[in-house]
Design brief:
The chain has 477 residues and is of the alpha+beta class. The protein has 24 helices and 13 strands. The protein has a seven-stranded mixed beta sheet with strand order 3-4-5-2-1-8-9. Strand 12 and strand 13 form a beta hairpin. Helix 14 (256-265) packs antiparallel against helix 15. The longest helix has 25 residues, at 343-367. The protein is globular and about 85 Å long. It starts with 5 loop residues before the first helix and ends in a 5-residue tail after the last helix. Bound molecules: adenosine-5'-triphosphate (ATP) and magnesium ion. Adenosine-5'-triphosphate (ATP) is lined by residues 35-36, 48-49, 51, 122-123, 127-128, 165, 167-168, 171. Residues 35-36, 48-49, 51, 122-123, 127-128, 165, 167-168, 171 line the site of adenosine-5'-triphosphate (ATP).
């Protein structure tokens, strides 16, 4: 263990964390900052959370840190969470894990008094560096050199470490992409060789890592998704059929998977629903693929079918209901034509947030076509975005909430509360959104008096716009 006090300032350790370290030290226990906070500081990033490792056992910790609120997060594993007032701080007793037989959990854990033992149970060298202002560095696996060189490497034998805990497969992809690290060849081979073990990992944990993977910056995410598509095809089997599927289209140079990946990295990571949608937007292509007499490929109705498949897959991965519904809706509509003069109609159907996402999806999708398609296809989408901005800034009416006439106004002229009242309000909204008439109280009340005794029929099917396109095949780009 070498001393290097300059790093203490670089690490920017908050005073509440230093205070806990000081208390442990006075009681005769060294403690180390370890894991993500050290790694992130070495990369010049502000750490998200701080983890401490110490030889003190949980019972001893509780005595020394008696003035803190302590949550028993995993005392069997030597972990407690301390509420410092500033943050939740995880403090863990040095641990050496026993053997693993289920690719998930160690069969036993034993506590240790050596930081090196504790570091050797950790997954990757860049996560196995520890630092203490008084003790200095502990870096037995060369994690700092690997970080410097931009390499993600397993601690010890890569295959064995992935077999112990297969979640490390997803963590490897996530860390490589979010930190911009190259995967060491030995680890890379082990990721491919052991990908099947991901089947032992709970869907919730896979999804959490998947979303963190998708949050990576464009340049760093692209090579990871291209290289490890087969790995992601374990939790998302539909990806397997996308890899290598030649679209036989004049608009495409990439197979369906590469097109998907390039579409995904063309959009910002700020909205993960958009990225998740793009990951699955063409999930309906493999099952709808046909080749016509000229040798050209088609994917008729891939959007509505893909939406169904994506919904089932996201549900199986235990995504929350809202995310599933949003991705479903976006995939369903991703291929539908939109023009500036139908933007209000789409706003009514999807709402502003989802329509903005739909445009982002369309832009990402478009950017992953051949250059000439991008040049001709992008401006019309940008025109729609302008029309959307204009509609929002001019407070155009596209929803019942904005309509100048409310349910109460209709009841006052003798309409019974119930489904008919709803249908009448929708019909009035139609006159504004579909026919472009003013959202004016007097006009709407006059229209309401005319419409109130007519049979308005069943609510109309909102998907007409999808249909035109799938059957014409005109908008294949
Ligand atoms: P972040 O906080 O950004 O997720 P992190 O590396 O801190 O990154 P945590 O899940 O907080 O991730 O884990 C803290 C540390 O515990 C890691 O840096 C690593 O040393 C170790 N660790 C976490 N998960 C595993 C695992 N599955 N196998 C081995 N070590 C792990
Ligand atoms: Mg952490």
């Amino acid at each position: 263990v070498a001393r290097d006090s300059s790093f203490t300032t670089a690490l920017n350790v908050p005073s509440d964390v230093l205070e806990v370290m000081g208390l442990l030290e006075s009681a005769g226990y060294p403690s180390f900052l370890v894991g993500g906070c050290v790694r992130d500081a070495l990369l010049g990033r502000q750490a998200m959370d701080y983890d401490l490792a110490t030889p003190a056992l949980v019972d001893e910790l509780k005595k020394i840190l008696v003035d803190y609120r302590i949550i028993d997060t995993g005392s069997a594993y030597g972990t407690v969470t301390l509420l410092t007032g500033q943050r939740e701080l995880e403090v863990t007793t040095f641990r050496a894990d026993g053997s693993y037989s289920d690719s998930r959990h160690p069969d036993s854990v034993s506590f240790s008094t050596s930081i090196e033992d504790d570091l050797s149970r950790r997954d990757f060298t860049v996560n196995a560096v520890a630092y203490s202002p008084t003790q200095g560095w502990a870096d037995p696996f060369g994690g700092r050199a690997d970080l410097e060189a931009g390499v993600l490497r397993a601690v010890g034998n890569a295959g064995q470490r992935l077999q112990e805990d297969a979640l490390r497969i997803m963590r490897a992809l996530r860390l490589a992409a979010t930190l911009g690290l190259r995967v060491d060849p030995g680890l890379s081979k082990a990721l491919h060789d052991n990908k099947g073990l991901l089947q032992n990992i709970s869907p919730e944990r896979i999804s959490a890592e998947l979303m963190r993977l998708l949050s990576a910056e464009n340049d760093q995410l692209l090579p990871v998704l291209l290289e490890y598509g087969e790995v992601l095809a374990v939790p998302i089997p539909e990806i397997g059929a996308m890899i290598g599927l030649d679209q036989r289209s004049p608009w495409h140079t990439y197979d369906v998977w590469e097109h998907t990946v390039r579409a995904l990295v063309a959009v910002s990571p700020d909205d993960l629903v958009v990225r998740l949608t793009l990951l699955l937007h063409d999930i309906g292509k493999p099952p709808t693929f046909t080749i016509d007499e000229t040798g050209r490929g088609h994917f008729y109705a891939h959007a509505p079918l893909g939406a169904e498949i994506a919904r089932d897959r996201l549900q199986a991965l235990r995504f929350d209901k809202r995310t599933v519904q949003q991705a479903y809706e976006l995939i369903r509509s991703h291929f539908a034509p939109i023009a500036p003069d139908t933007v209000l109609r789409w706003l009514r159907r999807l709402g502003e947030q989802q329509l903005r996402r739909l445009f982002a999806v369309k832009i990402g999708d478009m950017c992953a076509h051949i250059d000439s398609a991008v040049i001709s296809g992008l401006p019309p989408i940008l025109d729609c975005l302008d029309a959307l901005d204009e509609a929002i800034s001019s407070r155009a009416c596209y929803s019942l909430g904005q309509l100048a006439v409310k349910g109460g106004d209709l009841i006052a002229i003798g309409v019974e509360p119930g489904p008919r009242l709803g249908a009448l309000l929708e019909a009035l909204l139609d006159t504004v959104v579909e026919d472009g008439q003013p959202n004016d109280y007097q006009r709407l009340m006059a229209a309401a008096r005319q419409l109130k005794d007519l049979d308005l029929g069943a609510p109309k099917e909102a998907d007409a716009a999808d249909h035109i396109e799938y059957t014409s095949g005109k908008q294949e780009a």
